Amino acid sequence: MRTSLFALALALAAATVATAEAAVDDALATKLDQVIDTALAEQRIVGAVVLVARDGEVVYRRAAGLADREAGVPMRDDAIFRLASITKPIVSVAAMRLVEEGRLDLDAPVTRWLPDFRPALPDGSEPVITVRHLLLHTSGLSYGFLEPPDGPYHRLNVSDGLDQPGLSLAENLRRLAAAPLAFAPGTQWRYSLGTDVLGAVLEKAEGKRLPDIVRERVTAPLGMDSTDFAVVDGDRLTQAYADGDPAPVLMTDGIVVSANGFAVTFAPSRILDPGSYPSGGAGMAGTAEDVLRVLEMIRRQGEPLLRPATVAEMAADHVGPQAETQGPGWGFGYGWAVLVDPAAANTPQAAGTLQWGGAYGHSWFVDRTNGISLVALTNTAFEGMAGAFPTALRDALYQHAPMID
User: What pTM, to 2 d.p., does this model score?
Assistant: First the structure.
């Protein structure tokens, strides 16, 4: 009888704990749902997939809004998005796998693999650009959307990897090499087409196309079956939208989206054209679930792809406050921003948090101290990347005390 009573007590205790955990999850869902519902109601985004993991367990998952507003297609949690700059960390991981194997040298000149890629400084001198410079965006290269409308990037028609469907990598590298460098490599930081050049280096180093390298080194080992430099299932591809008033507008090829002084040209059909070069900085399409797999690999200190020491190097700030693309308090590592000073950044995230996004409307971060990974893919640029939406999600998450150690 006493054994039965003891078993009953244990069962009641377990039920109480389960009820408390359910209440905690419900509270988190309520906070995040409110942020998403508000953004949809205010027509700042058209649709989104949001995932949150804590210590490797998904604690929040939601597909909301519409994948295709004009056709009335609801968002689904396995929707495929044009990833834009979420491509960068994936390609950077592939590069670091080759570094670990001794097949790539971070401090070797790019000309070892690309002998004709010799962009010069304005005085005509040709400085050495290394693989490390490409990873860190300290090469002196730039992006067209960062350059003046009458500058050489626009005169040469350099692609940012988001436009010009069917353009070859060789042609874009030729155009890019003809533009003067913004500064001597290693002396400053500027967000750039460096990861596109890195992709070309990887192709020459391995004698394979970049999509095959990334598939073999990253996406296949992690089970990222829906992420590639082509769309694996057209029925799941979301439409792309741009900020508009009173509602986002459907993107068409050649649309220019402006915000904060930048003007980015998009061609949504680029991902559907097999002739488009595989942009290492912006060329992939995939799902939120797959992106989370990459982030969780980093949170696990590289397991099963990279050594902990390699992740530590990738996650260190190598450039200091000159890379404050995320605002004060942020530096930059290999493929992402690194939080150096949470107080200066006015963020609840812990120091060492990694964060970046994608121009089509995406944001993500990994707070390794608190074991939190968040992926928020939307189909609305730039609100989903740099508007109020990602900040509101972050703040709602950190207001949920059980998420924070």
Answer: 0.93
